[in-house]
Design a protein that fits this description.
The structure is a homodimer. The first copy, chain A, is an alpha+beta fold. The first copy, chain A, has 16 helices and 18 strands.
Chain lengths: 477, 477
């Protein structure tokens, strides 16, 4: 899929002495080894690697600032790298330059349990944070499939299965420490729960995918671990009845913590991969958080609503081990799906629509995918109107890739037509760039480009991503 | 307080023919009458009016775009005006120009009950919206004291008593229709609950106080009306025990909908103004939303925690009329406070700190205020760490105003030292501008200024606000 190289995919020349200066500063924490560069030039997307010219392993915000200033001075691209779990080509060094590996910045800076906040370095992963705070009685709910770094999660505005109750990174980042394109260090906010003081720099950087600044510390909101948790599975005759149940559940004010949809193929794959015996029909997977009686009440209400919509076989998982098995299975749905076609290469996509349009959007999409020459699964964070399509492609058959891209395009067009978005939680990276103008219109995209130029006048920060702007030199000073 | 006129408060010359062109386009919806200009050159702050040169009453987004393009072409300031209820000098025409009155843009554009969203024109007020959607079983929770316009609430990132459970305008604006400085019309997002597509233009505009674009439509999230609601009052020996109770309540995961603090003076004022007989001690006012049994359980948990912290006289208000009387009294605390000193002029301020520092911050502040030569009250959205000080000044005694400004400065310095913010919900306007650098630092403020220049290169949108930038002509093209 590197057959065409548009203007924003053009390697820049690295000035003489640039790499040597990095080596002098970082010693063996600077690598130009092919394997290391290759590893840092890819993510979990199906794109072939586009390696950077060098990889620097940073251990402090000050080091990040030094690298940024160096790259700024010499107009060399700079791409922050966490654990490499992004899905849409975010990390590819399409214009070459330096990949800045932040995985060594993995210290918990502070936990303020009384304030329900934790401050961590960008390389700390979500599981590491939750392990660290377990004894405080608090937890951090945002859970993308991968054990992603908090810096990366902030940068892609990630979410996961808990967003219907707890929100996404948009709602849960309190403050960021950011290195600007020219190597200055700022804090976007204090630790107050709310503020009306000036422009919301925090949310300017959340979701900016490394193109406006480099996040080196993240302060996030924490939540009390629920006193009681229970999970339930319910089978439905079709997607429409499942979605209608979810709409009614939310309308009743039931504060459901998770509600996930899996199509029949995803259930089948999960059964095979995770040794489960779920009934192979469209299903909803619920989780309830609260007091013991509150959880019971929520579950009863949901069960009634589901039954009225044709749901059946409402099954409980009250024991932690049963619940964990279920959710581990759900988090592994991606890997399970891959096993449906051994040796395949996968292409994933995600869209998000207003929930009233979700059944229609998924049904139309599934009808198209049923005609495809490859297998697929659909899973969704259905309370948010967000769903994922996993397409399982023959790596040796370029026609299948082209077919999957055409299906992806029609899916995105459908979502945008329904007042939705081209990506609910994966981010834009390279893969969704062609749809930005369709979603936002030329004038809004111009504003985004103006913001990019204002924050990164030499276009060094993860250039060639998000905004389909011109070649590398267009905005150089 | 207009004695000193810094660089950002300099009227600009209006080019010949500029007003005439407006008159030709808008007829009698253009006014240059002194009384109309005076009315549009003030807000609820203690600042004396600084009237615009003209007032235009717009009725559509296209009209707003026409005015913006006209002002942009001629480098004339343009200040959007809703209902005039801002508190920090947001609306003063410090550089002259056009006040754009949006109160006539008061149509409900669409209610999507299944999606829990409503789209309204910027002039629709929060009460108007709630009246309109009453029969849907949904409500819009954000409730600043005034019946503000939704456009104004978005522009100031407003919140109110429900924020501890439902969030602020930051979390509850789904999308905005915005007119840019040069008169283009954009939509910042679709209606999906979440999106990872590109820069978060929605939150760039939320809280930008009319300085980056003119909001003409707002799409907000709605919530199901709770099945059951109850309210309770609890008296405490001091603020510290009240705040400690709130921390423990949140730590227990009780999803309290509202928790408000009133100091003894505020209670006394409220008793007098609203004909109530509340015990005159520091108190917390709670509200619980949920199912009948859920509400009962929440209340029991809170009562136990309060009692363990020295709270007493836990009193219930389960009947809607009792509850409404209480909350009306709370919303009228500002007017009640004014009656403590008949004929006074008030100066209000608000800060927000991490909740672990709230007791310390309020206690230190109250100790200073006890030495002041004027009366004051303190009320707070204590679950958020946000509180308000109302200072009651003799309008004929400039020394009192100077004293109140010095107290305000020390309060803000204290809040920022505690990792808080100079304003939790009022916004910056003119009054908090001097503290922006203290809170964010020079480098972050430079980024905000770069954002402003990128979005408004001629510095026409509510110029001289938020960012203490130079004189009017500094950024002119």
């Amino acid at each position: 899929m590197n057959a065409t190289h548009p203007a924003h995919i053009q390697r820049r020349a690295i000035p003489a002495g640039f790499i040597e200066a990095l080596r002098e500063r970082f010693g063996d924490r600077l690598s130009t080894a092919a394997a290391v560069r290759e590893h840092h030039g890819r993510d979990e997307s199906p794109y072939a690697a586009m390696p950077p010219d060098a990889v620097v392993y940073a251990t402090s915000t000050e080091e990040v600032a030094w690298v940024a200033a160096h790259c700024h001075r010499h107009h060399v691209p700079l791409i922050p790298y966490g654990v490499g779990s992004s899905l849409e080509g975010h990390l590819l060094a399409v214009q070459g330059g330096v990949s800045l590996d932040l995985s060594g910045m993995n210290h918990i800076v502070a936990v303020h349990a009384e304030d329900f906040t934790a401050t961590v370095q960008a390389g700390v992963t979500r599981k590491q944070l939750n392990d660290h705070i377990r004894d405080t009685g608090l937890f951090f709910p945002i859970d993308p499939g991968a054990d992603a770094s908090l810096g990366g999660m902030a940068a892609t505005r990630a979410s996961g299965t808990n967003a219907v109750r707890y929100g996404t990174m948009r709602e849960n980042v309190v403050s960021l420490k950011v290195v600007t394109a020219d190597g200055r260090i700022i804090d976007t906010a204090g630790r107050a729960r709310k503020s009306s003081a000036g422009y919301d720099l925090t949310r300017v950087f959340v979701g900016s995918e490394g193109t406006l600044g480099i996040i080196t510390e993240v302060t996030v909101r924490l939540y009390p671990q629920p006193e009681a948790i229970s999970a339930a599975i319910c089978n439905f005759p079709d997607l429409r009845s499942a979605v209608q149940s979810v709409i009614e559940v939310i309308q009743m004010g039931v504060p459901v913590a998770r509600v996930e949809f899996m199509d029949t193929a995803a259930v089948r794959a999960t059964n095979a991969y995770s040794k489960l015996t779920l009934k192979e029909s469209p299903l909803l997977l619920f989780e309830f958080h609260g007091s013991p009686s509150g959880v019971r009440e929520q579950a009863e209400t949901v069960q009634e609503i589901a039954r009225a919509n044709g749901g059946e076989d409402f099954a409980w998982a009250e024991h932690p081990e049963d619940r964990n098995r279920l959710w581990t299975a759900r988090h592994n749905a991606y890997f399970a799906g891959l096993q449906l076609r051994p040796g395949c290469r996968s292409s994933t996509t995600d869209v998000c629509v207003p929930i009233s349009r979700l059944a229609e959007c998924v049904t139309e999409t599934a009808a198209e995918l049923d005609q495809a020459s490859f297998p697929y699964t659909i899973v969704g964070h259905v309370g948010d109107g967000n769903f994922h399509v996993l397409m399982l492609l023959d790596p040796d058959n370029p026609a299948e890739f082209a077919e999957s891209e055409a299906l992806n395009r029609r899916l995105v067009e459908r979502a945008i037509r329904m007042q939705g978005t081209c990506t609910g939680e994966h981010g834009v990276g390279l893969h969704k760039m062609p749809f930005m103008e369709m979603e936002f219109g030329r004038d809004a995209l111009d504003l985004m480009a103006a913001l990019k130029r204002a924050f990164d006048p030499h276009n060094i920060l993860n250039p060639g991503k998000i905004i389909p702007s011109g070649p590398a030199t267009e905005h150089a000073a």
